[in-house]
Design brief:
Elements (H helix, E strand, L loop, with lengths): L4 H57 L8 H6 L1 H4 L9 H6 L6 E6 L4 E6 L11 E7 L7 E6 L4 E2 L4 E2 L4 E6 L3 E2 L4 E3 L4 E13 L6 E9 L2 E10 L5 E13 L4 E9 L4 E3 L4 E10 L6
C-alpha cells in the first residue's frame, strides 16, 4: 500500500535531520582529529628540539673518543660515568642520562644546592630547573669547647688567654697550648666567650675589655665594669658569627684592663666555637 504524501514528506524530513546530525558529528570528530594531529606535531617538534639540544651538549662535553649518539647515551654506562665533572645544573644531569623528574643536589657557586628538575620541559623553559634551597654539607665536622682552670691570673692588656681543659675538640682546630683556633676550611663559624673578671674595692668605676681576634685584628668584644665598696665579680660574654677563610687564626685576648682588675682562669673562662656552614665547593 502506497504511503500518503504527508507521511512521505515527514519521513524525508526525519531522514534529513538524521543526516544533518551525522554530518555535524563527523565534522566535530574531524575537528578533534585535526587538533590532536596539531598537538602530536607540536610534541614531535619539541622532542626533536630536545634531541638536538642533548646531542649538541654531548658533543661539547663527552670524553675524548666517546660516542655522542643518543642511543649510546641511553645504553652505554661507560659514557655516563666517563666524566669526572660534578653536575652543576639539571642540564648536566639530563646529559648524564637522568630522566626522572625530582629534586637533585648540584654544585652551586659556593654551596651544594637542591634543585627540582622537570625533564619533560625544554631546557630553556623557566620551569625546567627550580632552586629549592641549599644542602647543609660539610667535608668534615669542626667544633670545640675549652676551659681555663689555671690558678694563674691574667692582669695585663694585650695578653692571649690560654686554655688547659679540652672538653671537646672535634677536628683538632683548637690548640689549647697556644690558645689559637685555626679555621680548617672556609665558611661561617659561631664563637662564644664567657667568663668572670674580678673588680677590687674602688670608689670609681674600673673596666675590663676582652676581645676575639682574627689574624691579630679585633673582630668581637665583651666588657665588664664595676665600682664596688666590697669587691665583686663582673660577668662578661661575647657571641659572634664570623666568615672565615681557610687558615685564619683566632684567639681570645685581653684588650684593656684597669689596675688591680684581673681575669681569673680558675674554671670561669670558656671558649666555644663550631663550623655552621661550609663553602664546600672550595673543597671539591
Amino acid at each position: 500500500m502506497a504511503q500518503s504524501p504527508t507521511i512521505f514528506v515527514s519521513n524525508i524530513v526525519q531522514l534529513k535531520e538524521t543526516v544533518d546530525i551525522k554530518i555535524a558529528q563527523l565534522e566535530f570528530k574531524c575537528k578533534q582529529l585535526e587538533e590532536k594531529d596539531a598537538q602530536l606535531e607540536e610534541e614531535i617538534r619539541l622532542k626533536d628540539q630536545q634531541l638536538k639540544e642533548l646531542l649538541s651538549y654531548n658533543a661539547r662535553n663527552a670524553p675524548e673518543g666517546a660516542a655522542t649518539d643518543l642511543r649510546a647515551v641511553g645504553s652505554n654506562a661507560n659514557l655516563r660515568q666517563g666524566t669526572t665533572k660534578m653536575p652543576t645544573s639539571c642540564l648536566d644531569l639530563k646529559a648524564a642520562g637522568f630522566y626522572l623528574n625530582g629534586i637533585y643536589p648540584v654544585v652551586g657557586a659556593q654551596h651544594i644546592e637542591l634543585v627540582h628538575c622537570d625533564f619533560s620541559k625544554l631546557t630553556f623553559d623557566p620551569s625546567f630547573q627550580k632552586l629549592i634551597g641549599f644542602a647543609d654539607v660539610k667535608s668534615a665536622p669542626t667544633y670545640f669547647h675549652v676551659q681555663s682552670i689555671t690558678r694563674d691570673t691574667f692582669k695585663q692588656s694585650n695578653t692571649t688567654v690560654l686554655f688547659n681543659v679540652e672538653h671537646l675538640n672535634v677536628g683538632g682546630a683548637m690548640d689549647v697550648k697556644t690558645g689559637i683556633f685555626t679555621a680548617p676550611r672556609a665558611g661561617k663559624y659561631f664563637f662564644s666567650i664567657t667568663g668572670l673578671a674580678w673588680f677590687p674595692v674602688s670608689s670609681y668605676r674600673r673596666i675590663f675589655y676582652i676581645g676575639l681576634y682574627k689574624n691579630s685584628n679585633q673582630i668581637a668584644m665583651a666588657h665588664a665594669g664595676e665600682a664596688s665598696t666590697l669587691g665583686q665579680w663582673g660577668p662578661f660574654s661575647s657571641l659572634s658569627t664570623q666568615n672565615l677563610q681557610k687558615g685564619d687564626q683566632l684567639s681570645v685576648e685581653i684588650y684593656r684592663i684597669s689596675p688591680d682588675v684581673y681575669l681569673n682562669g680558675n674554671g670561669f673562662v670558656y671558649f666555644t666555637g663550631w663550623l655552621m656552614e661550609e663553602e664546600v665547593v672550595l673543597s671539591l
